[in-house]
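User: Fold this; tokens only.

Assistant: Input:
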Amino acid sequence: MIKPNRLKQRLSAGETTIGAWVNFGTPDSSEILCHMGLDWLVFDTEHGPWSIETVQNLIQATAASDITPIVRVAWNDIVMIKRALDVGAYGVIVPWVNTKEEAEQAVRGAKYPPRGVRGCGPRRAALFGLARKEYLDVGDDLTMVIVQIETQEAVDNLDEILAVEGIDAIFVGPDDLASSLGVRGQPRHPRNTETIAHILDVAKKAGMPVGLYGLGPDCIQEHIDQGFQFIVLGSDMSFMINGLRDVLRRIGRG
């Protein structure tokens, strides 16, 4: 039996969800995070050095949990999108979506004909064929398309992007947005934070859930209060680094 997409259900209901980025290519990392009370995990293939086989292994480590697995694909490419969904992702984050046409392309890559151009070979998503008909019947509605708003061009075209049918949420990447705005390496610069607030305001008026890679542990509650619904607390890598730094600091080695 195909599991429901709990993340999609909760975002549609207006709920706030929290999750983490996965940067380590070991199933142990995914499995540990699944037991920490998160709602979803994002497996990053844009900057992560992984093959699709590794992504499948990482997603398989989440199978016994209620975690919703999402893959950030490396590019707005129909092959990358369909392969991520075929190995069991319940949605994709598509980077560098700057126009209405690019948003439409992302949706087409994630949906079966006649809505899109996704090839009909769901593999693990259909339990290796055991639930093929069920998956093909529900796949379009089950999976999510989340487009990343990370440039000034995307901000300028935000209304048109939000109007594209099939977009389930948008996601703000503060670092890339800061670079586009001329304040690279300064995600908390007023120019960046004001632009992020503008994106959130426009999207909320359009009824679109907004995600954000959190600006640090001290900012998470603020992000929740602002109305972000898909908030990244950090990554397995940052959790390890920050945890060790805290221990070292406590013994005077930090």
